[in-house]
Design brief:
Its main location: cytoplasm. It is built from 23 helices and 25 strands. By secondary structure, the protein is α/β, with parallel strands linked by helices. The chain has an eight-stranded mixed beta sheet with strand order 20-19-18-21-22-23-24-25, sandwiched between helices. Strands 9, 10, 11, 12, 13, 14 and 15 form a seven-stranded mixed beta sheet that branches. Strands 2, 6, 7, 8, 16 and 17 form a six-stranded mixed beta sheet that branches. Strand 24 and strand 25 form a beta hairpin.
Length: 706
């Protein structure tokens, strides 16, 4: 009799499996090479009809793994079998190639054999093995499947009648097969179909008693077949093969199981290869196959050898395969996965607790789309921030592109494009997955009176700005005048937003975060941009203002009476990118701190020593209040500034007046000189200072100096 030839499994990997492996590798597995369990499935064998010849063409005996392979309970269609696999991903291609393939498959085979001998369990009979290496930069995935199968010695043989259609005699197609089908004709295929449709079984038993067909599980073999004549016993399995003379791979291990567990009853086995996923239409035969297999003498209790590594479909050699997804992937999806790769790699070894989702979900509002705004936006994108909004009323000029990396020469033509919209559009070209928008808004400022005809427009601009503040979590103040920062400072404090300030001098810069309105965890409230000055923001900066000699004077000076070198931001070219990056890094450190907006700054150190980053609760280290940078000395100086109760930007007096009066209060600040001084009490401070000055005999002081 001819030896039974089994149709081997062929792996079918859906693209979703590789996409999910990419996520798993980056977010879960990281550097681990531990084996994990994955899920696969196979269905009953299918064939298609060749239109030219009219013959059926068998489809592959496929075992499929897809995106749901890593889930615990994937959903399967009827007549499909769930199977588990051992999955092992290697960190380097060298490790993948050097892996001991024999040891890997032998380990799986041993577990399958132990389950047969010790528990009589069939759940592992179709277990597979998958090893991979994922090149996430090129989106190439090297992989090799093994479908472990025992080698029976002697081999199983099929009866001289071979494999026949299960209903052949009933349909009267092949009278010569009566000797095989005579006892089988009583089994009602429709009853089997109905039973399998309700409860899909990879392996099952069938018997006929009194004209009634029953279906049971393999594990119930002795009880199920008790008192049943051998000619009325049938062993069935869901067959993934569609080849007429070749049953599918699962039958190999099923026969080994039967011989090992029930050796006295299984030297000859009547096998039903179930291949019908639906009832045949009228006049069509059932596709399932039936045959009788037998085996010679041997020791069924000894663990047999095994095979199973998949052959390459092109060369037919035992070798690994590669799936190259880059050519078939949507470029936008490629970009979406690639932009965060470097960030997620930080969590493999350096910062496992880094919360990237919190950073990515932070909505950032950038007031100013100039040099600082462009660099802040690029650095935010580097940290994975997905929502960036620009506000600016200027247009791109010819001096901008060389200093502001989001603009090009063409943006300057025909009067220049609006900066905010142009910057947002450029971000989407860099990364299509970014949610970037631009708004052309003129921010009203104290000391810049609004004419009656423009009040309604100013009111709309303020309302628009308030809405943007409500829709964002973080606000960056990146403008080039001191008074333009006042309204955003008030709004940020009133609405409890994270506000970050960046300002430039020639070779110095200031980066700071505004303190929260409520008390911080240290009990001391941190100051805002205006807390260090006793002068209210205005268009004309008094000569004796501390800001006249401030390191940020060039950036924050007022707008009136300025020469050309004062109207332009005259700074060392590398300074803006340093300040912008520092501002973003300060934000991310703040977001990683459990206290967030209320995070305390590091306390001052003796003799100017640097604070220890390990003392901070942020995984990224310290969260300073202010950083003043000196490029000429290549030095940064952390500073803590307390809130000022007479501050014109964040004091409770100002915030309550805004909350109670709204735009009317703001309009007074814009139009009425001295309003903010009077509101906060700075005018009384001036008077007290003048009184002290008048009481001093300056002539006497001068004589003593001489």
């Amino acid at each position: 009799m001819p030896v039974v030839q089994f149709a081997p499994f062929a792996s079918l990997v859906q693209p979703g499996f590789w996409h999910e492996l990419t996520r798993m590798k980056i977010d879960v597995l990281r550097l681990s090479e531990d084996a994990i369990t994955v899920n696969g499935s196979y269905s009953v064998g299918r064939s298609i009809r060749d239109r030219e010849t009219g013959h059926d063409i068998a489809l592959g005996c496929n075992l499929t793994v897809g995106e749901d392979a890593y889930q615990k309970a994937p959903q399967l269609s009827p007549m499909s079998v769930h199977t588990t696999g051992i999955f092992k991903n290697f960190n380097t291609i060298e490790d993948f190639k050097a892996a001991d393939k024999a040891a890997l498959i032998n380990d799986v085979v041993s577990k399958i054999w132990d389950s047969i001998i010790t528990t009589k369990d069939t759940s592992l009979l179709t277990q597979f093995l998958l090893i991979t290496f994922a090149d996430l930069k090129k989106y190439q995935y090297f992989y090799w499947f093994a479908f472990p199968a025992f080698v029976s010695k002697p081999a199983w043989q099929i009866s001289e009648n071979g494999w026949k259609q299960a209903d052949e005699e009933i349909q009267g197609v092949c009278p010569s097969s009566r000797s095989i089908s005579r006892s089988y004709k009583h089994f009602q295929l429709e009853s089997i179909y109905d039973s399998l449709l309700k409860t899909t079984r990879s392996f099952f038993l069938v018997k006929e008693i009194g004209g009634i067909t029953e279906v049971g599980s393999i594990e119930q073999y002795e009880e199920f077949f008790a008192g049943v004549a051998p000619e009325n016993r049938v062993i069935g399995f869901l067959d993934p093969s569609a080849l007429p003379e070749n049953p599918g791979w699962p039958l190999r291990n099923l026969l080994t199981f039967l011989r090992a567990v029930y050796p006295s009853q299984t030297s000859s086995v009547r096998v039903l290869c179930w291949r019908d996923s639906e009832r045949p239409t009228a006049g069509k035969p059932w596709r399932s196959r039936f045959g009788v297999v037998s085996i010679g003498e041997g020791d069924p209790t000894t663990k047999p050898s095994a095979i199973g590594w998949e052959r390459h479909p092109t060369t037919n050699k035992l070798s690994a395969r590669v799936a190259d997804l880059a050519p078939m992937m949507d470029p936008k999806r490629l970009a979406d996965q690639a932009v965060d790769l470097n960030l997620k790699l930080m969590r493999w070894r350096i910062l496992p607790s880094l919360d990237l989702d919190k950073v990515a979900s932070t909505r950032c509002l950038l007031l100013g789309a100039g040099t600082l705004g462009c660099y802040v936006a690029r650095t935010l994108m580097g940290w994975g921030v997905r929502t960036i909004t620009f506000v600016d009323s200027a247009r791109v000029s010819f001096s901008n592109p060389v200093r502001q990396p989001l603009f090009e020469f063409e943006d300057c033509l025909n009067g220049g494009k609006p900066k905010a919209a142009c910057a947002a559009q450029r971000l989407t070209k860099i990364f299509p997955g970014i949610n970037a928008t631009g708004h052309d808004i003129s921010i009203p400022m104290p000391g810049h009176p609004i004419p009656p005809a423009s009040i309604e427009q100013a009111k709309k601009d303020v309302r628009h700005l308030e809405t943007l503040f409500d829709e964002h979590d973080v606000v960056f103040l990146l403008m080039d005048s001191r008074e333009s920062r006042w309204l955003p400072t008030v709004l940020g404090a009133a609405k409890g937003k994270i506000v970050l300030n960046a300002a430039l001098g020639f070779d110095t810069y200031l980066v700071m975060r505004h303190g929260a309105r409520a008390s911080s965890t240290t009990g001391d409230r941190l100051g805002c941009y205006y807390c260090n000055d006793i002068v209210a923001p205005a268009d004309v900066l008094p000569f004796n203002s501390p800001y006249r000699h401030s390191l940020t004077y060039l950036s924050i000076q007022s707008l009136t009476d300025r020469t050309l070198d004062q109207m332009c931001t005259v700074t060392r070219p590398g300074l803006a990118s340093i300040a912008a990056s520092t501002a973003v890094e300060l934000l991310v450190s703040l977001l990683q701190h459990p206290d967030g907006l209320h995070a305390p700054p590091p306390p001052p150190q003796a003799n100017g020593a640097a604070a220890d980053p390990s003392t901070s609760d942020s995984v990224l280290g310290l969260v300073p209040h202010q950083l003043r940078g000196f490029l000429a000395q290549f030095r940064n100086l952390p500073i803590i500034g307390a809130a000022y109760d007479k501050c014109t930007g964040c004091s409770e007096t100002v915030l309550k007046a805004y909350e109670e009066q709204g735009f009317d209060m703001l309009l007074k600040a814009f139009n009425e000189p001295g309003f903010l001084e009077k509101l906060t009490g700075l005018d009384k401070l001036y008077s007290e200072g003048d009184a002290i000055a008048e009481s001093v005999d300056w002539d006497e002081e001068d004589e003593e100096d001489d």
